[in-house]
Amino acid sequence: MTVQTKFSRRSFLVASAAGGLSLGMAIPFAGPAAAQTGAQLPEVNAWVVIRPDDTVVIRIARQEMGQGTLTGLAQVVAEELHCDWDKVTTEYPTPGENVARERIWGDFGTAGSRGIRASQQYMREGGAAARMMLVQAAANRWDVDVAGCTAANSVITGPDGQTATFGEVAEEAAALDVPTEVALKDPSEWTLIGQSVPRLDTVDKVDGSQIYSIDHTMEGMLNAAIRRAPVMGATVASFDGDAAADMPGVRHVLQVGDDAVAVVADTWWRAKTALEAVEIEWSDGDGTGYDMARIRAMLEDGLTAEDTFVGNRQGDAMAAIEGAAQLVEATYHVPYQHHATMEPMNATAVWTEDRCEVWTATQNAEAALAATSTAAGLPIEDCDVHRINLGGGFGRRATMQDFVTQAVLIAKQVPGTPIKMIWSREEDMLHGTLHPITMCKMTGALDADGNLTGLHMRISGQSILAGVRPEGLSEGKDPIMFQGLNPDGDEGRLGYTIPNLLVDHAMRNPPVMPGFWRGVCNNQNAFYLESFIDELALAAERDPLEFRRALMADHPKHLAVLDAVAEGIGWDTPAPEGVFRGLCQHMGYGSYVAAAAEVSVNEDGRFKIHRIVAATDCGTVVNPQQVAAQIEGSFAYGLSASIFGEITITDGKVDQENFDTYPVVTMWEMPAVESLIIPSGGFWGGVGEPTIFAATPAVVNAIFAATGTRIRNLPLSKNGMSHA
Amino acid sequence: MKLMVNGSVREFEVEPDTPLLWVLREQLGMTGTKFGCGIAACGACTVHLDGFPTRSCAIQVQDIDETQEIVTIEGLSPDRSHPIQQAWVELDVPQCGYCQSGQIMAAAALLAETPEPTDEDIVNAMTNICRCGTYNRIKAGIKRAAELS
Lengths: 724, 149
Ligand code: FES
Ligand code: FES
What we know:
Number of domains of chain A: 3
Largest interface: A-B, 63 and 57 residues
Order of helices and strands of chain B: EEHEEEHHHH
CATH topology of the largest domain in chain A: Aldehyde Oxidoreductase, domain 4
Distance between the termini of chain A: 64 Å
Strand content of chain B: 5-15%
Helix content of chain B: 25-40%
Distance between the termini of chain B: 36 Å
CATH class of the largest domain in chain B: Alpha Beta
Bound molecules: FE2/S2 (inorganic) cluster
Number of helices of chain A: 18
Structural class of chain A: alpha+beta
CATH superfamily of the largest domain in chain B: Beta-grasp domain
Structural class of chain B: alpha+beta
CATH topology of the largest domain in chain B: Ubiquitin-like (UB roll)
Oligomer: heterodimer
Mean pLDDT of chain B: 98
Mean pLDDT of chain A: 93
Helix content of chain A: 25-40%
Strand content of chain A: 15-25%
Strand order of the largest sheet of chain A: 10-11-8-18-15-16-17
Low-confidence stretches of chain B: none
Low-confidence stretches of chain A: 1-39
CATH architecture of the largest domain in chain B: Roll
Radius of gyration of chain A: 27 Å
CATH class of the largest domain in chain A: Alpha Beta
Number of strands of chain B: 5
Number of helices of chain B: 5
CATH architecture of the largest domain in chain A: 2-Layer Sandwich
């Protein structure tokens, strides 16, 4: 199988270049490829296994968590494989297999809307290489020139009309060298990429048979409930588990690391009930003494501070502001947000002196494997993580694998017994990795004709990287703070040409654990900028669309999606009586998005979102109906934050403990969404997050049009506004 | 204790104040019904109790009589043939799917009560949380199911 090693190195390089190795740990590479996964079945190459009955098993390294990546990735492989789509199924390799095979599947991390865009190239190559090997095997069998053979629908046809199915030649194909040069189809030849095929994973989700991590069960398994110190940095000072130990079903009351206590029982409900009877004294932590007033004061200080990092500088913004005919200033704020995935964090672990295995829902199984190895005190080759579909990720399960660490630390104290640890919703809310808090002071300079001559955007607030991956900072600067505001690049480029511009960040890091939250810093950056652009247009007495268009001549793709939503909502025609409109655009994760909203507001501040038109240019579309699903879902997620979402801190502890105090959008608030998917070709952008950026500014701008009140502090509920 | 679940009487040992949700999931090993919040706020645990959509995290087994009929997602149909399930597949409603057992049970109860629900009926009946934001497809799915039934 040395040939596979050759191919694997190539895949690995492509993966590194495209996705980046964001693991923050060195994986000790094993020796030559071991190929244990495909040992029993004809593995044509790492991506494709073909069973004798012609079933095509496509290996998926990225993680499905609702966003449709599993189906989309299978489509890109099948496109080049020329297999029968109805025979396609999928499987997840484990990170342990990836280590053993020199990281043949590349990056497992599923975040940054990268699931498809960062893997499509090497996966299409994997599909094409597998097809070439299958066709070669058939040609060898028939002793004909491979050039005269074709493959379609899992059947190979030879020059004299002879046929063989993929399943018939799979074993012979598996013995061939993996080609190192593969030619991919021109997009004009695609028959599967771009099609709204049904998801491969829907049916099990309609009868309860889909197994989530929380449903995992094993022979002899016990269940654990856990409570961790609610204040960041605090530890267990002492605990008394005597009462709990006598309760039904309880087997152990344990300390977990230095900051948590767990009860292990036969069932989780008994463990959780007994945990309530454990008396725990916590030490103080870094967060002790911090509340919102103190945190806000830190951020306010940053609004005028000198110690900043620059994200984008053009011309001389300060001079333009000095010489402005009209100055416009406003300060905005976005609070902490919680992921609140439907499935609370959980993991099952079994530990022995020689081996540790974990079953869990994670967005980054390689990071989970690293966490397992560290917590288990075992080399990485003696550990593995089995991936189970997620009941929501949104970034919570991407970076921090704290739930894995805890499950392993518990299992280590009960050797040989599988332990399933589940967080209660309260535990989950108290230990989020929060979308960080920021403020932004905007200062805009207009000339006498109402043209924007200068803009200073001062962001003050918490850095995610400083909290979760400080080694990712570049000389102290967190580049993620500037998402969507960058002067260039294909990831998130500002869509306006502003002659004098300064975007800078005063980093202020309260002792509250931050995390990557679907959309990340694009969310507040789009809210700040797209709200303020409307404020500038008002000051300049210009129409918000026309004011934007004047700054966008050099940004045709940004402009195209904006124009599309303007046309879709009917910007040039009057809105229905009592209904008002707002719009916005932003670019992030390689895609261009825009949204327009129609809103009405009554005298009591109750608003109704009548209609949303949302446009996405993600370059290349794999499955339009799933892109539409992501666009719709992004409004539920983004508007949850802007209507209700706010996590507050008292003495270092999160105040919100469940959905009663952290409400989210339900069907009641959910607007009708018209999705305009307008791929302009030539690139691959993400779709899982981008539309979230556009949800809030479009609605807030429409609310301003309706009321004359500019919402500068989210959420809307804190501005006396609720949904009608 | 005894409960009638999906047409058969099931016997188990448990503290009587245990929520139905956890008896279903742990004592009876039926994991289709999901835990989301534990305080009747999210609907992930919705089952039918004598035909009514009921949040099983908020009802203790001691308050259920063994003659009362409990139907879970596993018992909605033997073969995914309930019109709600058919419509869900047809429209690819689920994203992560975690909330969908509860959504489907709530939707099936609505349809049983109101065979041709209006938008308003649907919005009033469907209060379950979906963090993936599948609400518009759920709404369309219920209307499609009404056509199918
Ligand atoms: S788990 Fe019962 S309503 Fe949320
Ligand atoms: S489908 Fe994921 S929470 Fe509803």
